[in-house]
Design goal:
Blueprint lengths: L14 E5 L2 E4 L2 E3 L3 E4 L8 H8 L5 E4 L4 E4 L1 E6 L1 E2 L2 E2 L7 H15 L4 E8 L4 H11 L13 E2 L2 E4 L23 H8 L7 E2 L8 E2 L3 E6 L6 H9 L4 E4 L6 H10 L3 E2 L30 E5 L7 H10 L4 E4 L11 E4 L5 E5 L2 E4 L5 E4 L3 H12 L3 H6 L3 H6 L17 E9 L2 E11 L2 E5 L2
Parallel strand pairs: 1-5, 2-6, 7-10, 10-11, 10-12, 12-15, 15-16, 16-17, 17-18, 18-19
Antiparallel strand pairs: 1-4, 2-3, 6-24, 8-9, 13-14, 20-21, 21-22, 22-23, 24-25, 25-26
């Protein structure tokens, strides 16, 4: 008997049935019921539960035509609500408290799972922060808010010529391959470890889930296999790689591109660079790729070109800094530079250099939806099923299939003069409602 079908007798009445809604399934919005269990935190096999076990829902939610999407997944988030994941306080207990605050605030934006992202820093930052940023959903507590799926280390193995706003003083070239990654991030953060008894006593995944690096540097390309063998995604980014160098990275095991077009060699008709990996004139598997749809990092037409080149690899990311959710103004950053926030636009003080993003993932979805002509299912897949598949988590996250985690976003569709807007009405985590706009 599947644990998602029939909870223990004492908690059997914790099943919610959603009816009269449009459920995201693949490339379609289908009209069917959806059952979730707050006891297991999973999506229930409703037919089996009702007909074989005579289970009836405790609560019925009439969606009145609204959309049910899997919870959103952001694979590149540098911070939010004033908290920067790369900023290390004197008292690390404060870091943990701030992280808990962010998780409870972030889930209100529809992001039920994410990769907390560390920018290029010195090793002590990674060794301090990474133990806090590893996968956090083992206890399956809805009240904890958004769930970390593991940290994303964006740097410091980046090409100085494509560093963006990363501090070039801390960048490393990796002449010793994987040994340099272990020295930088801490070997314990790159391998599975024992979990606590409260987490079930099973093996805990590595704290790091994804590493962005430039494969053309030093012996970084030779380290890719060591990275991916540990269940960690290797993403090509902040790189001046030629098409041939980028292809070698994919052949070695790279499966992702960090913020396509930004901080990389531009497309050229004689050497398409990293963008060329999206083409079909090669036998290698095409990588997934992140896109920042804030209207600042990329022109809408560039986004359409990327999507049309490889829709199944298209992932929307925010690349949001700690300033998302704050008022406009001038703020400090971890690079000892000051950042000017004006709406979604972030620039370094005294220049027009882009300093990350200040946008939410639902805003990225709405921008892409209206710029590209894509369907609502296509836009939602870019923040649900596709990132889950890239992370190797497609059975549990980014889907509304039976036995998956019951992480849901209830969306209202509003059509006006400026196009279609999806508005977050409710967010559910592990089968319990944690946010209601009403």
């Amino acid at each position: 008997m599947s644990p998602a079908v029939l909870p223990p007798l004492a908690t059997r009445n914790r099943i919610t049935k959603f009816t009269n809604g449009r459920i995201l399934k693949g490339n379609c919005l289908v009209q069917e019921e959806l059952w979730v269990s707050a006891s297991t935190g999973k999506i229930v096999r409703s037919q089996e539960a009702f007909y074989e076990h005579q289970v009836v829902p405790d609560t019925v939610v009439d969606l009145r035509g609204r959309i049910v999407s899997p919870g959103f997944i952001d694979v590149q988030l540098n911070g939010a609500l004033g908290f920067d994941f790369s900023a290390i306080p004197d008292d690390m207990a404060t870091y943990g408290k701030e992280l808990n605050r962010i998780n409870r605030g972030l889930i209100r934006t529809g992001v039920t799972s994410y990769l907390p992202t560390l920018t290029s820093q010195r090793p002590y930052v990674y060794n301090k922060a990474l133990p806090f940023l590893g996968p956090s959903g083992a206890l399956r507590l809805p009240e904890s808010g958004s769930e970390s799926l593991g940290a994303h280390c964006e740097g410091p193995f980046l090409n100085p010529s494509r560093s963006g706003i990363h501090n070039t003083d801390v960048l490393l070239s990796g002449p010793n391959g994987f040994a340099d990654l272990e020295s930088c991030y801490g070997s314990s953060n790159l391998q599975p470890g024992p979990s606590s008894p409260d987490e079930g006593g099973s093996t805990r995944p590595p704290s790091v889930k994804m590493i962005t690096a430039a494969p053309e540097l030093g012996c970084i390309n030779s380290a890719i296999g060591d990275v991916t063998s540990r269940g960690i995604i290797f993403s090509i980014g902040h790189s001046d790689a030629t098409y041939e160098q980028a292809s070698a990275g994919v052949e070695a095991g790279a499966t992702m591109i960090t913020h396509l077009f930004n901080a990389m060699r531009p497309l050229h008709h004689r050497n398409p660079g990293i963008f060329g990996l999206l083409g079909t004139a090669q036998s290698l598997r095409r990588p997934y790729f992140g896109i920042i749809a804030d209207g600042i990092h990329l022109h809408p037409t560039s986004i359409k070109i990327a999507f049309n080149a490889y829709p199944d690899g298209f992932i929307l990311v925010t690349d949001a800094m700690h300033l998302v959710g704050l008022e406009d103004g001038i703020y400090d950053s971890t690079n000892a530079e000051r950042i000017v926030k004006k709406g979604a636009l972030l620039t370094l003080l005294g220049s027009d250099k882009i300093a990350g993003s200040s946008i939410t993932l639902i805003e990225c979805v709405n921008n892409f939806l209206n710029w590209s002509g894509a369907s609502i299912p296509e836009a939602l897949k870019a923040v649900t099923a596709t990132p889950a598949r890239m992370l190797g988590l497609s059975e549990a996250k980014g889907t509304l299939e039976s036995d998956a985690d019951a992480d849901l976003v209830i969306l209202d569709e509003i059509t006006g003069e400026n196009g279609t807007e999806l508005v977050i009405d409710q967010v559910w985590k592990f089968g319990q409602m944690v946010f209601d706009r009403a």
